[in-house]
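**Protein of interest**
===
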Amino acid sequence: MNAITDETTWRAYLKRNRGLLVFGTLLMLFGLWLDIEWLSLRPPGILYFLNSLPGAVLILTWYLASKYPTRRLVFIGIGILITLFALYGMFAINIALAFYSS
């Protein structure tokens, strides 16, 4: 593949499933914002990763759904389920950390 074909492919990827990409990027930024807020609390390192996990999963879902359009619904369904589970964990940890810090 040459550079022109790669560029065309990425442009095609960006046009597909934009909602997943936008929402995944917003969740990733929200997770990074929470990580910055937590710097003074110094929680274990895995908790920083868990804040960014929902956004990362949705961005991965967007990529896989764009790359394999025949299995798009499977990737989107599994990705949304994992994202919801990760969001539940993220908010549960945030609530527990708020109670612990107060």
